[in-house]
Amino acid sequence: xxxxxxxxxxxxxxxxxxxxxxxxxxxxxxxxxxxxxxxxxxxxxxxxxxxxxxxxxxxxxxxxxxxxxxxxxxxxxxxxxxxxxxxxxxxxxxxxxxxxxxxxxxxxxxxxxxxxxxxxxxxxxxxxxxxxxxxxxxxxxxxxxxxxxxxxxxxxxxxxxxxxxxxxxxxxxxxxxxxxxxxxxxxxxxxxxxxxxxxxxxxxxxxxxxxxxxxxxxxxxxxxxxxxxxxxxxxxxxxxxxxxxxxxxxxxxxxxxxxxxxxxxxxxxxxxxxxxxxxxxxxxxxxxxxxxxxxxxxxxxxxxxxxxxxxxxxxxxxxxxxxxxxxxxxxxxxxxxxxxxxxxxxxxxxxxxxxxxxxxxxxxxxxxxxxxxxxxxxxxxxxxxxxxxxxxxxxxxxxxxxxxxxxxxxxxxxxxxxxxxxxxxxxxxxxxxxxxxxxxxxxxxxxxxxxxxxxxxxxxxxxxxxxxxxxxxxxxxxxxxxxxxxxxxxxxxxxxxxxxxxxxxxxxxxxxxxxxxxxxxxxxxxxxxxxxxxxxxxxxxxxxxxxxxxxxxxxxxxxxxxxxxxxxxxxxxxxxxxxxxxxxxxxxxxxxxxxxxxxxxxxxxxxxxxxxxxxxxxxxxxxxxxxxxxxxxxxxxxxxxxxxxxxxxxxxxxxxxxxxxxxxxxxxxxxxxxxxxxxxxxxxxxxxxxxxx
Length: 693
Fold this sequence. Notes:
Blueprint: H1 2-5, H2 10-26, H3 34-48, H4 50-60, H5 69-73, H6 85-96, E1 103-111, H7 118-135, H8 147-152, H9 156-159, E2 167-175, H10 180-197, E3 203-207, H11 209-243, H12 250-270, H13 280-308, H14 313-340, H15 348-399, H16 419-429, H17 431-449, E4 457-458, H18 470-481, E5 490-495, H19 500-513, E6 517-518, E7 522-523, E8 526-527, H20 530-535, H21 542-554, E9 559-564, H22 573-585, E10 590-593, H23 595-629, H24 632-658, E11 676-677, H25 680-692
Parallel strand pairs: 4-11
Antiparallel strand pairs: 1-2, 1-3, 5-9, 5-10, 6-9, 7-8
Helix pairs in contact: 3-14, 4-15, 7-10, 10-11, 11-13, 12-13, 12-15, 13-14, 13-15, 14-15, 14-23, 14-25, 16-17, 17-24, 23-24, 23-25, 24-25
C-alpha cells in the first residue's frame, strides 16, 4: 500500500508541469494584446473626456471668422534659386542700382482712336497718374511712364516707345516687397481707377505678374465656393447611400467643419513666416474634405457593423478605435510624411504647399481620432435609433401594419454579393489569376507609362489664373502691339566705367541679342557716345532732355544698364530659349536678369532635385510600411505599385495636356506652348503617393 501511495502525488506534479510549460509557452505571446490595450485605453480616454472634447470643438468654431484671412496672406513671390545666374545678377544689379531691387512692372494698355482724340487720351493718362501718385506714392519705385507723361516733360524721344497708332501703354514700376495683400490692393486700385477714368470708347486693361496673382486669388474664392456648393453635398449623398444611415452624417459634417476652421487659422499664422501661394487653400481644403469623408466612412462603417453584432455602445466605439483608428493613424502619418517631403525642395512655394497640406492632414487626423469617438459616445446610439424610429413609422404607415411587423434595418443587413470582392478574393486565392491580372494591368497602362519621361513644363503665370482672365486678354493684346515682353522686361547690366569703348561693346552685345532694347548706348536707333552726353550738359532741347533722363536712370559710377523687351512672351518657350542663348553670350561683367529669368532658374533647380525627393519619399514610405505591416515584401510590393501608378498618371498627363490626344476644351493648356505648368507635377507626386497608399 505504501508503494502504491508513493506515486499518488505524481499526477499533480505532471499537471503543474503542464501548467508551467503552457505558461512558459504563452509568455512570448504576451506582447500580442498590446495594440488592443492601446485602443482600449483610447476608448476609455475619449469616453472620460467626451464632453470637454466636444466643448473644445464648439469653441473652435468661434475661430471661423479668422479663416478667410488666409486668402489675404497668400503670396506668389518666388525667391531666386541659391547659386543660380539670376541670384548673382540680382546681387550685381542691387549693388549698382539699389533703388531698382525688388521692383515689378504693371502695364495698363489703352486702345482706341488715339490720334483722333489726343486730348481725351492724354487727359486719361494724366488723371490716372495723378490718382496713383496721390494715393500710392510710396509704392512707386520709378516715375510713371507713358507717352503723354514723358511728352509733358519734353522727353519726346523716350516717349515714342510707349505709343502705337491704335494703342498706348502706361508703365508702372512699383515695390514688390510690400506683401501680397498690399500689392493686390494696389493692383486692384489701378485696375478699378483705370476703368473708371477711361473714355467711353476706349478699351483699357492691366497686366503683369501681380495682376495674374490677384486673378488667381479671385479664382480661389470661386473654387472654394464651388467646393462648398457642389462637392460637399455630393460627398454627403454618396456617404448616405453607402451607410444607409442618414443621421450619422453628423460625424463627417462636424469633422470637416472643425478640421477646416483649425487648419485655415493655423496656416494663416504660418503664412506670416512662409510663402503660401494663392492656390494652396484650394488644395488644402480639397485634401481635407476627401480625408475627412474617407475617415468618417471608416468610423461609421465599423460602428454600424458592431451595432449589428448587438454589443454595447462602448464596445462599438472600441471596435471603431481598434479597426478604423489604426487605419487612420497609418494612412494619415503616411500622407503627412509624403507632403513634408516637399520641404526638401529648394523653393519657398513648394515648401509652403508641403507645410500647409501637412497641417491640414494633421488636423483631419486628430479631429477624426478625438471628435468622432466623443460624438459616438454621446449620441451614436441615439442617431441610429432615430433613423430606426423614422423608418419604422414610415413603413408602418405604408404597410398599414403594426410596429411588431417591422424589423429594424440597421441592426441586421443581409449580405449582398459584391463583384469586386469576388474578384479580389479570386486573385488572392490563386496565383495564376494574380499573374494574369498583373499582366493585364501592365499591358493597359504601358502605352501611357512610356510617355511619362517626355513631360515638358511651362513657366507661364497665365497658368495660375482662371481662363480666360482679364490680365491674360490684356497680355495677348499687348503682345500684338508692343510685344509681350513689355510686361516682364530684362535688365542687362554692364559693370565698368561708362566710356566710348564700353558703349560700343555694349551696343554690339545688345544688337547681337536681336530684340528691341533701350538704354544709354542708343536712342531711337542712334548710337550714342560719351561726347553726346557731354554736349547736352547745358542744353535743354528735347533730345538733350531725353539723353539726361536716360543717363540719370541707367548710369552709375561703377556700371550702366539697358532694358530689353522681347517681342515674344518672356515666360514662353521661345522667350526662355532666347534667355539661354543670351546668357551664353555673356562675358565677365555682363549680367542678364528679369522675372522670367528668376522663375526659369527656380524651375530648373526644382526639377534637378526632383529625383532625389522622389527617392527619399519612396524610401520613407518603404520604411513606414515595413514597420506597420512587419513585412518587407508587402512594403516592396506597395512601392512597385506606386511606381507603376505614378508612371501611368504622369503619362496620362503628357497625353492629355501636352500631346492633346483628347479634343476637350477644358482639358487643354491655355498657352501657345504645349506642356504642363511647372508646379502641379511636383506636388502631384505627393498626392498620388499619399492617396495610393
